[in-house]
Amino acid sequence: MELYKFLPQTNCKKCGKPTCMAFALDLLKRKVKIKECTPLVEEDKYKEKLEKLKELVGDEEGEEKELRINVNEDDCDGCGICVTVCPVNARYCYSTLSGKAPEYPPDSHQLFVVKKGKCELLALEHCRRIAAEGRERECRVCETYCPREAIKIEYV
Amino acid sequence: MEKITCTGCSLLCDDIIVKKDGSNIEEIIGACLKGVERFEMISSKHRVLKPYIRDGDSLEEIDWDTALNKVVELINKSNNPLLYGFSNTTCEAQLKAIELAREINGFIDSNSTICQGKALNVAKETGFTTSTLTEVINKSDVMILWGFNAVESIPRLLNKILFSRGKFRMTGREIKTIIILDPIKTDSFNVMGPRDIALLIEPDKDIELIETLKEICCTENALPSNEVAGLDKDDFKRLQTNLTNSEYISIFVGQGLLKNQEGKNPLKSLFELIDIINERNKKGRASIILAGGHFNMMGFEHVALSNTGQNQSLSFNNHQLIESQETIISKIENKDFDLSIILGTDPISHLPMRLSKKLASKPIILIDNSRSGTYLIADLILPTSISGLETDGTAIRLDNVPIKLKKVIDAPQNLLSDEDLLNKIIEKLREKREGI
Amino acid sequence: MELRLNSVRMINHDQSKEFSLGELDIMEEELAIAYINPQDFEEMYLTASLKLHISNENGEIIVNFEQDEDVPKGTVLMPVSIWSNQLTTVKDGEIVNKNIAVQVEASRDPPTKLNVIIKKIRNE
């Protein structure tokens, strides 16, 4: 009942649950999200509790956050490793298999393209972290192999 | 939309797509920063479009006729001209340059003499196993970058060799191993995976390392007991496993391995190491690829070899090739020249100060398309079109494969190509000679 | 302090090869630079506002510097350029541009100007 400690414990019923304990249980089962507890989010005195709770729920809360792949344009030198190494690109753009640049105009599934010596993100919705199932969802190859460390996968 | 070959570096990527809008290039897809740099040269505000002549500290614009007459005058005054550069131009222009050197009884050398071309001189004695990039992509399972920072000098190389999925290497990166041997932790170290090896070796100790590798490739139990070149027994064990059990080893040699160490040439030892691996490794083979920088560095070697029988440092007398031990360095060092013609390179930026000073003490004719350090000291500057973008031609890739270059757009202000300009100079010289 | 100088090719070097006469500062910014290890930085009691005075028997230059953990301790890294060429030399018919002994000191003077070097090259 770790989670209960960081709730307001006022049983205000604003979330639609009869008690804070019930809310905590549902939070554990991921039936509700933290932001549904409005006093916790809105009132300043609960700020610390909110932070702690977010830390605890952390990654389990993934659905709430949005995937971002940030490409740092200053660092990128357009080597195209991300284009070649991305498994989605490899599947839909045949020429990347031999390390060549994909055809243009790009396939609708293509994730990365190098334009004017800088990497650009095209269709994030086809990224494995969104579209794939199971272990494939944990794909991080573009971030791992970027020699300039210009690609960062983040959830915001 | 057009597929063209990029001339940014010696990899000569042939998969670059450009979108044109009249005489402008609108979009460049697939090229790295180095390639884009070359495309941007076309419309750069720093581009040289008119011939200039030096008048003290300032440069004065002149017309083409005056400029060409001045060239002929300078050449006719000179008894011992020096021609240098030629690795940023097409093979056709290189052929013309050799013809010009023959015509004016000069000494001609290319950038490759002080770069990767050194390896070919060693190879004359020992022989040399090489392979093409396609072979590396399809077969290679171990790649060694030796004193070579691929990420900075040939950005797309790792993409092509390491991350591609070849015919016999279907799963790509997963079954390719990369070994990086460098004294400095470069950006190339960031592509390391769990099975790869990155080793920091002590500077100028490559030769010791190669000698030890030769031993451990011959006998299994010859692992050194103490540190060699900053590497311990475990490192050697891993290197031994990779060198003796791999199917196809490709070694990329960079600038770091070209300098003599303790009076010995590390390249010679490296070639011997390759021979040992090839002899003893029943499963596969090893080969070397020289990773030069300029896009047609290998071109000059091939053109000169097929045209004269000697691959670099050509000395002409009486319109005949003569035997000589001189190189571009010894020529400048001994001030054994009275005029220099420099094409498509920037010696001030890559030669030591001592040589730059000596080079600047004699008249310089610079044939180039953008401003550089040498532009600030040259006496006569002749602009040309950009090879491979504004002119057709042939270039030789780093793995000695000739590649056709396709013209993308027209040169501004009817600039001549390197080839045509050199041809014009030769014609003018012959006219003048016959006139007398 | 005595360090070893390595000059290497960097991708930015090619980018700043071009410059216009009016924009000399850009070239100085890009190429008149040295990278040193943070430990050497501390040992020399440097601060970010200072410059580095690098010299050996071939010549001397003043350049900006940056700290870089990837540079091995006891070495200085510079891009191959007119600036690093002040310190390189020729030995036995070969250019020596790696592993050169140099004397490095802190300096308050501005980085060496390009036109100063060009003048030096022209007036032999």
What does the model show?
The complex is a heterotrimer of chains A (156), B (436) and C (124). Chain A has 156 residues and is α+β, with helices and mostly antiparallel strands. Chain A has helices at 2-5, 20-28, 38-42, 47-57, 81-85, 87-92, 128-131, 141-145, and strands at 67-71, 112-115, 118-121, 151-155. In chain A, β2 and β3 (118-121) form a beta hairpin. Chain A starts with a helix and ends with a strand. The model of chain A has no long low-confidence stretch (mean pLDDT 82). With 436 residues, chain B is an alpha/beta fold. Chain B is 35% helix and 20% strand. Chain B has 15 helices and 19 strands. Chain B is globular. The termini of chain B are far apart. The mean pLDDT of chain B is 90. In chain C, the strands form two sheets. Chain C has a six-stranded mixed β-barrel with strand order 1-5-2-4-3-8. A two-stranded antiparallel sheet of chain C has the order 6-7. Helix content of chain C is 23%, strand content 36%. Chain C has a single domain, classed as Barwin-like endoglucanases. Chain C is globular, with a radius of gyration of 14 Å. Chain C contains four helices and eight strands, in the order βααβαββββββα. The mean pLDDT of chain C is 84. With 124 residues, chain C is of the alpha+beta class. Chain C starts with a strand and ends with a helix. At the B-C interface, α1, α6, α12, α13 and α14 of B face β1, α1, β7 and α4 of C.
What keyword list fits this structure?
B: 436 residues, alpha/beta, nine-stranded mixed β-sheet, 15 helices, 19 strands, C: 124 residues, Barwin-like endoglucanases, six-stranded mixed beta barrel, 4 helices, 8 strands, globular
